[in-house]
Amino acid sequence: MRTLGMDTSGPFCTVGTAGDAGLIAELTVHAGRNLAEKLPDLVNRVLSDSGIRGQDLDGIAVSIGPGSFTGLRIGLGFAKGLAFGWDRPLLAVPTMDGLMRRVPSVFSRAAVAIPSRKTEVYLGLFRPGESGWTIEGEIKVRENDRITSGLPPGDIAMLGEGMSVLRRKDGLHSRFHLMPVESSIPSGVLIAEMGIELLKRGVIADAHGLAPMYIKRFKGIL
């Protein structure tokens, strides 16, 4: 199987292709306000580097959030267009699940923070299992100064663009492990690999009805 994956949920736009053996090609750029212009070019370049025609893909995988409202709309809209145009299955991958592929399962938990409003983040808590990381509870909205408040005991990996506020904070408890900055940058290849897993399980999104994952605004995580 070969899939195309893309993530436009944050400041970076990333597109990649993957097969059963893993990475084929990937490009990641800082999109800024020109996402709608850069995304089609990135897809064309990645497919060219991969030596794959769009019609030969087995599926189109796209990150569905949470994240930037505008970025998610652009990415999902473009992915739907490709899926319809090439008559390929559309595969929906939650943004945080894609980021968690970078985290080794040596921690008791992992927390992912994605910027929401200026003083808030979307916060998701994950735990390791036999088949990888699994989200624990629901994704919630947290104020920046309460990211670590109420998290369960044990060593916790901390990642995501929203964790930048903790990198500037003095006295962070030693049980909170800030992952390298690059761990917070989405990967089109990881999205594509998760798309292959969804295809094998027969989990195909409804290309007509699929919408970005928007999180209800209320405080707390546990």
Structural class: alpha/beta
Helix content estimate = 25-40%
Summarize the main sheet.
6 strands, mixed
Number of domains: 2
> Into which percentage range does the β-strand content fall?
25-35%
CATH topology of the largest domain: Nucleotidyltransferase, domain 5
What is the averaged pLDDT score? Answer: 92
Radius of gyration: 17 Å
Distance between the termini: 39 Å
- In total, the number of strands is 11
Give the key terms.
2 domains, five-stranded mixed sheet, 5 helices, globular, 222 residues, 26% helix, Nucleotidyltransferase, domain 5, disordered C terminus, alpha/beta
Present the secondary structure layout.
Elements: E1 2-7, E2 12-19, E3 22-30, H1 35-50, E4 59-63, H2 69-86, E5 90-93, H3 95-100, E6 109-115, E7 120-129, E8 132-135, E9 140-143, E10 156-159, H4 164-167, E11 176-178, H5 188-201
Parallel strand pairs: 1-4, 4-5, 6-10, 10-11
Antiparallel strand pairs: 1-2, 2-3, 6-7, 7-8, 7-9
What would you say this structure looks like, in words?
This protein is of the alpha/beta class. It has two domains: 2-95 and 184-201, ATPase, nucleotide binding domain (Nucleotidyltransferase, domain 5); 96-183, ATPase, nucleotide binding domain (Nucleotidyltransferase, domain 5, 2-Layer Sandwich). The chain is built from five helices and eleven strands. Strands 6, 7, 8, 9, 10 and 11 form a six-stranded mixed beta sheet that branches. Strands 3-2-1-4-5 form a five-stranded mixed beta sheet, with helices on both faces. A hairpin with a 2-residue loop joins strand 7 and strand 8. The protein is globular, with a radius of gyration of 17 Å.
